[in-house]
Design brief:
Length: 279
C-alpha cells in the first residue's frame, strides 16, 4: 500500500487562504483531484491524506466534501479554532466523519512563538487525545523547544511533525543544522511521535540536489526510525522547487539504503498505522 501522507486541494476563490500570494503562478490557482490523479497513477500511489491549507472550519468541510467524492483520499486533516473553546463541539461533530483524522493549527504563521503553550488553547490538545484524533505539528526550527515542552505536557496526544520542521536547507549553516538536528532528536525521544518526510525540497534552493537533502533525511530516519517516518509530497506546494515525480524519485533515492521492509514503512505503513487509515 503506497500512501502520500500530505497533499492539498484548494480553490483560491474561496477567499480564506490568507497566506497565499495573490497572482502567484504556482500557488494562486485551483487544484483538484483530477490534477493529482496522473501523478498518483504514475507512481502507483493508492491513497492520500488531504491536509488543511486555510485556518477555517469552512475549508475543513470543503475538504471532507472532496474526500466523500474522491476514492483516493483516505482521510482529512482539518482545522478548528484553538482559541475558541466552543469549537470542542465542532471537533466532536467532525470526529464522526469516517474520513476526519485530526487537525493542524497553522503555528508557523502565528506571530507569537509561545502561542502553542498558552493556557487558553490547552483544551484543544486534551480534546484531540480524548477523541483519539491526530495533531499535525507545523512550525519552524525556532519552535522546536516549545514543541518539545508541549508534547511532554500531552503524552497521550498522537503527533506527527510536518515537513521535518522546515529546516533552512537553502541557507545551510553548521550551527543551524546542529540546532535543528538536536531539536528533532528531542522530539523523536517522545514515544509514538512521527515525522513526515515532506517539504524538504521547498526549503532547499533552486537547483537542489539529493546531496543537499541527504543530511536532513538521514537525521530524521536515524532519530525516528522508518516505522515512525511517512513520506508526503506536499503537492502542490512542492512545485515551487520540483514537480511531483522529481520529489518522489528523490525521496526514493534518499531511502534506497533502507531494507525493503523499512521502505514499505516510509512510503505507506507508517501513515496507515498513525492515521488509522481504512485501507
Amino acid at each position: 500500500m503506497q500512501i502520500d501522507a500530505h497533499q492539498h486541494y484548494w480553490q483560491p476563490r474561496r477567499g480564506d487562504y490568507d497566506w497565499m500570494p495573490e497572482g502567484h503562478p504556482v500557488l494562486d490557482r485551483q487544484y483538484r483531484p483530477a490534477d493529482l490523479a496522473q501523478h498518483l497513477t504514475a507512481h502507483r500511489i493508492n491513497k492520500t491524506v488531504l491536509v488543511q491549507a486555510a485556518a477555517t472550519v469552512a475549508e475543513t468541510e470543503y475538504m471532507l466534501g472532496i474526500a466523500d467524492a474522491t476514492d483516493h483520499v483516505a482521510g482529512v486533516v482539518g482545522w478548528i479554532d484553538f482559541e475558541n473553546p466552543n469549537d470542542a463541539a465542532t471537533l466532536s461533530r467532525l470526529a464522526k466523519h469516517p474520513k476526519f483524522l485530526g487537525v493542524r493549527p497553522m503555528i508557523q504563521d502565528i506571530a507569537d512563538d509561545n502561542w502553542m503553550l498558552r493556557e487558553d488553547v490547552q483544551w484543544a490538545y486534551r480534546a484531540l487525545s480524548d477523541l483519539g484524533l491526530t495533531f499535525d505539528a507545523l512550525g519552524f526550527p525556532r519552535h522546536l523547544d516549545n514543541f518539545a515542552e508541549l508534547l511532554g505536557n500531552h503524552p497521550d496526544l498522537n503527533v506527527v511533525i510536518d515537513h521535518c520542521m522546515k529546516p533552512d536547507i537553502a541557507g545551510h549553516s553548521d550551527a543551524a543544522f546542529t540546532q535543528w538536528a538536536d531539536g528533532m532528536r528531542r522530539l523523536a525521544d517522545r514515544p509514538g511521535t512521527c515525522c513526515k518526510l515532506s517539504g524538504l525540497v521547498t526549503e532547499a534552493a533552486e537547483g537542489w540536489t539529493i546531496d543537499d537533502l541527504r543530511p536532513y533525511c538521514d537525521v530524521v530516519l536515524d532519530a525516528f526510525g522508518p516505522d515512525r517516518v511517512m513520506w508526503g509530497s506536499d503537492w502542490p506546494v512542492c512545485q515551487l522547487r520540483a514537480p511531483y515525480g522529481d520529489w518522489r524519485r528523490g525521496a526514493e533515492a534518499l531511502c534506497a539504503p533502507l531494507s525493503a521492509d523499512d521502505r514499505a514503512q516510509v512510503f505507506g505503513g507508517t501513515a496507515v498505522r498513525f492515521y488509522g487509515l481504512p485501507v
